[in-house]
Amino acid sequence: MDLLKLDIPAPRYTSYPTVPYWENNLNEDMWKQKLRQASERYGDEGISLYIHLPYCESLCTYCACNTRITVNHAVEEGYIQSLLKEWDLYLEQFKAKPLIKEIHLGGGTPTFFSPENLNALLQSILSKALIHENFDFSFEGHPSNTTHEHLRVLNALGFKRVSFGVQDFDETVQEAIHRYQSFEEVKASILSARELGYRSVNVDLVYGLPFQTVTSVRDTIEKVIALKPERIAFYSYAHVPWLKPGQRKYSEQDLPADAEKRRLYEMGKQLFVEAGYEDVGMDHFALPGDDLFEAAKKGSLHRNFMGYTAQHTHLLIALGASSISDTWDAFAQNIKSVEEYQKKVEAGKFPIMKGHVLNEEDLLIRQHILDLMCRYQTTLRDGGNGQYKNVIDRLQGFVDKAWVLREGETIRIVGEGKNALRNIGLAFDERYWNKVPEKQVFSTTA
Length: 446
Fold this sequence. Notes:
Layout: H1 28-42, E1 47-53, E2 55-56, E3 68-69, H2 75-91, E4 99-107, H3 115-126, E5 130-141, H4 148-156, E6 159-167, H5 171-177, H6 183-196, E7 200-207, H7 214-227, E8 231-236, H8 258-274, E9 278-279, E10 284-286, H9 291-298, E11 302-304, E12 307-309, E13 316-319, E14 324-326, E15 330-334, H10 338-346, E16 352-357, H11 360-375, E17 377-379, H12 389-400, E18 404-407, E19 410-413, H13 421-428, H14 430-434
Parallel strand pairs: 1-4, 1-13, 2-3, 4-5, 5-6, 6-7, 7-8
Antiparallel strand pairs: 8-10, 9-10, 11-12, 14-15, 15-16, 17-19, 18-19
Helix pairs in contact: 2-3, 2-10, 3-4, 4-6, 7-8, 11-13
């Protein structure tokens, strides 16, 4: 495989090893042991809590997340009770009340849930925990159903960051991906958030969607920039119809070709930079003063299953169907089916579908890839002459193009190399190279 090509299949590296390479060598007793060890080892630094709320009223065909489509809001209370029972299972593994440093509500559509139900869920969780003095609470909201009351209730609970999924304003694109929100709705949501005191607003955009053109994407970006969100995530569309059949609503012929897709990204990045944003890691841009920007400058940026974060915790507890928890030396993913997840929790069991216990090599490679993703550099410690020989060989093409610099034991990504983070990370991925997939498993890097 030519790692220099910017359209190769590669992981997004929210973890290492990536999920397809997990050995599934974790059972419930081992998971409890890992939780107890992690809570004792890392408890003082605080924990991150991710809550997966999978429900959406309609299917966005571009989406690769684990979702449940329904207009029946009666499902809210039952699902919340399951989340709280799962939280109790985790609390049993702590010797004292956990110290929560970070909460993120993801989905699905978290604002599918009523403000009253979200308040009840979070009040119950926080009543059994302590809150870190430097806490950071955030949630994802759909501009079309995030009300002022959603924003007010969550803000009163300590939420100061919100991320709005916009993707594209072009009506043709919105029709293809079945995702509708107007500029006026997005503007109103952002203004409401700022009036209530939210300190950081993120807007998600996607390039490479069906029927996008340079003109339409430029129009979307200019409209978003006019709203001055503190952060912008500019994601590459992941076309994986073998995993998400909804994407078969359109064909590959409707998508921007590789060179055109790359042009969309480069144009977007240029517009962000001209507007005062700086890239702070793969796909992400932030204004000076934002927490993510400051963390990138300080070298304290972190990346986990929630994406990039300004907070670094070793222990991530994830509640809800399909969510993934991390004790730093072990991963555990919950059952994807909502009904099966709830059934397992009702039985008083951790609803684990699969997991992975990291060995010493995994932990070492994990840190290298994390350093590359968050700081654009890593240190090999043996000069690359021993255990890293294969990595150095795979990186040589990047060195020849001056995308990667070797400075003693330090590998540093510069210039155009920053646009090839996934490719460079793949050079370190020994589990991938030991068993290269025979068919496409990951989305392409373009």
